[in-house]
């Protein structure tokens, strides 16, 4: 139960159709596109969602209330999501379920080592997979009773959320960006590219990440990536 949530009333009982009914999920995610996908998943599953776009915002939320489930992206603009997971793993009373989330599957072990109960790979769009990932970590009394058919539907975030992400990262790549900003832009766009199946953007983001990992000059890769961001930013939806 959200014992510190001033807006919480009686907790409704989950059902087969809405198995996450009664849960409040705090999503710590800087990508509007990824967060919109989770919002739609929560809406179809019965859960309430709250969003924090950085570690600082998440900590402010957690001073006010305790969510049922915490989903933390591991690459955030003001630090590593692993730090927040480690903090909350030790906090009492503990959140019922803490999940790390990333497009980099190699980070699953790091998330578990930090104290996460599970790991959610990006992109996550399948309703049934999302529900099972959370339900498997909850106490028995928080799960729906009886037989439940796995929901095979998927969600599709609005393209406007993608445009918001492009505008955000375009600002990061201005002026020129410092080393921290380059690393952040590479991981952010790599994850977004996987979510949107944008192969060209993903290849460019990975090329920048590879150069950064080697400590090599990356002006050319940065310029290519910035140009791709501007191209996608200019592709407005016809209204």
TrEMBL record:
<protein>
    <submittedName>
        <fullName>Response regulator</fullName>
    </submittedName>
</protein>
<dbReference type="InterPro" id="IPR050595">
    <property type="entry name" value="Bact_response_regulator"/>
</dbReference>
<feature type="modified residue" description="4-aspartylphosphate">
    <location>
        <position position="73"/>
    </location>
</feature>
<keyword id="KW-0597">Phosphoprotein</keyword>
<feature type="domain" description="Response regulatory">
    <location>
        <begin position="24"/>
        <end position="137"/>
    </location>
</feature>
<dbReference type="GO" id="GO:0000160">
    <property type="term" value="P:phosphorelay signal transduction system"/>
</dbReference>
<dbReference type="Pfam" id="PF00072">
    <property type="entry name" value="Response_reg"/>
</dbReference>
<dbReference type="InterPro" id="IPR001789">
    <property type="entry name" value="Sig_transdc_resp-reg_receiver"/>
</dbReference>
<dbReference type="InterPro" id="IPR011006">
    <property type="entry name" value="CheY-like_superfamily"/>
</dbReference>
């Amino acid at each position: 139960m959200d014992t510190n949530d001033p807006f919480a009333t009686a907790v409704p009982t989950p059902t087969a159709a809405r198995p996450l009914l009664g849960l409040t999920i705090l999503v710590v995610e800087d990508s509007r596109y990824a967060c919109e996908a989770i919002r739609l998943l929560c809406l179809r599953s019965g859960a309430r969602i709250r969003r924090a776009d950085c570690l600082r915002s998440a900590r402010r939320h957690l001073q006010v209330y305790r969510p049922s489930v915490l989903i933390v992206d591991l690459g955030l603009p003001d630090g590593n999501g692993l730090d927040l997971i480690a903090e909350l793993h030790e906090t009492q009373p503990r959140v019922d379920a803490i999940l790390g989330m990333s497009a980099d599957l190699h980070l699953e072990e790091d998330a578990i080592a930090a104290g996460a109960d599970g790991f959610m790979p990006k992109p996550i769009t399948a309703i049934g997979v999302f529900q099972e990932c959370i339900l498997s970590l909850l106490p028995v009394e928080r799960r729906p009773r009886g037989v439940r058919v796995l929901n095979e539907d998927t969600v599709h975030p609005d393209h406007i959320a993608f445009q918001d992400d492009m505008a955000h990262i375009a600002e990061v790549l201005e002026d020129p960006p410092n080393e921290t900003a380059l690393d952040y832009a590479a991981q952010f766009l790599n994850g977004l590219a996987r979510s949107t199946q944008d192969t060209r953007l993903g290849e460019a983001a990975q090329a920048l990440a590879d150069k950064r990992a080697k400590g090599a000059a990356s002006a050319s890769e940065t310029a290519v990536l910035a140009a791709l961001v501007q191209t996608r930013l200019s592709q407005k939806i016809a209204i």
